[in-house]
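[Discussion] Sanity-checking designs against the backbone

I'm trying to build intuition for which residues belong where. Below is a C-alpha cell string of 261 positions. I'd appreciate it if someone posts a full sequence so I can compare it with mine line by line.
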C-alpha cells in the first residue's frame, strides 16, 4: 500500500533539549496507526511535525508523496485535521459553533457555512453524543465534554488524514470507545489515514492496524499489532513486564503488565 507519511532522518529539539533524533518512519495510507511510548519519548512532537506545526531541524516529512513544506496552509487544512491534547477556546463559543469551526477550510472567504457544512457539523455532534449540548457554552463543559467537542470538530473537517494526540484521555470509557470506533470506521470504510497517540496499550491493540513504539525520540519498533506489541518490546520501551494474549471476548490482543521487581 501507499505511504501517507514518509519521515526520513528527522532531528528536532528545543530549549537545548533533543526530542527527536534520527527518526525514520513510514505511515501506511488508509490505516489506523497508534503511536505509543513513555512520557517524553517524543510522541506529541512527532505529531506536530506531521501536522506541519513544527519544522524538523534536519530531515524531511513527506505527506502523500510531497514534502509537507510544499503545501499551502489552506491545502494542508483540507488534507489533515489535528485534534490536540488541549484546545483553548478563547471566546464564548457554543458547542455547535466550535464544531462548525472544523468546516472553515471548506468555506469560501467572507461566506457563511453552507447547509452541507452544517450537516457535517450536526453529524459530528450526533456521533460524539453532543447534540443535547449544542447550544451550551464550551466554557461550561467538563473536561471530557470539551474533548468530545474537539473530536467532533475534527470529524466535521472531513479530511483524508487525521492526527489525534491522546484523543480519549479525559473521556469516560463509553465515549472513548465511541470515538475510536468512528475513527476505525473511517479507516476501514473510507480509507482515511488515522494516526493516534495513545497511552492505553489495550485501546491501541483494540483499534489500530499498526503500532509505532517510540523510545528516547526514535522508533524502537513498528509494524502490525501482533508482531510489534510483544512482551520484549513493551519491556524495552516501558520498563514493565507484560503478558500479551488473544482476547476472544474483545476479539483483539489483551495486554496486562506489572512493574519489574
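Best answer:
Here's mine. Compare freely.
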Amino acid at each position: 500500500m501507499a505511504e501517507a507519511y514518509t519521515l526520513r532522518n528527522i532531528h528536532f529539539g528545543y530549549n537545548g533539549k533533543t526530542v527527536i533524533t534520527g527518526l525514520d518512519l513510514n505511515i501506511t495510507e488508509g490505516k489506523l496507526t497508534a503511536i505509543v511510548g513513555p512520557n517524553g519519548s517524543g510522541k506529541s512532537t512527532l505529531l506536530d511535525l506531521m501536522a506541519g506545526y513544527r519544522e524538523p531541524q534536519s530531515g524531511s516529512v513527506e505527506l502523500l508523496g510531497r514534502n509537507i513544506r510544499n503545501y499551502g496552509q489552506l491545502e494542508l487544512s483540507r488534507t489533515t485535521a489535528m485534534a490536540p491534547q488541549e484546545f483553548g477556546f478563547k471566546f464564548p463559543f457554543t458547542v455547535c459553533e466550535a464544531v462548525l469551526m472544523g468546516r472553515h477550510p471548506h468555506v469560501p472567504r467572507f461566506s457563511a457555512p453552507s447547509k452541507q457544512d452544517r450537516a457535517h457539523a450536526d453529524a459530528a455532534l450526533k456521533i460524539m453524543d453532543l447534540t443535547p449540548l449544542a447550544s451550551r457554552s464550551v466554557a461550561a463543559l467538563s473536561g471530557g465534554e470539551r474533548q468530545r467537542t474537539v473530536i467532533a470538530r475534527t470529524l466535521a473537517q472531513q479530511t483524508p488524514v487525521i492526527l489525534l494526540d491522546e484523543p480519549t484521555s479525559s473521556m469516560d470509557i463509553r465515549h472513548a470507545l465511541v470515538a475510536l470506533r468512528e475513527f476505525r470506521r473511517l479507516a476501514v470504510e473510507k480509507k482515511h489515514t488515522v494516526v493516534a497517540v495513545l497511552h492505553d496499550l489495550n485501546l491501541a491493540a483494540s483499534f489500530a492496524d499498526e503500532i509505532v513504539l517510540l523510545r528516547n525520540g526514535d522508533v524502537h519498533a513498528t509494524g502490525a499489532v501482533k508482531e510489534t506489541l510483544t512482551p520484549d518490546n513493551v519491556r524495552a520501551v516501558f520498563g514493565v513486564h507484560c503478558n500479551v494474549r488473544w482476547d476472544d471476548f474483545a476479539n483483539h490482543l489483551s495486554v496486562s503488565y506489572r512493574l519489574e521487581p
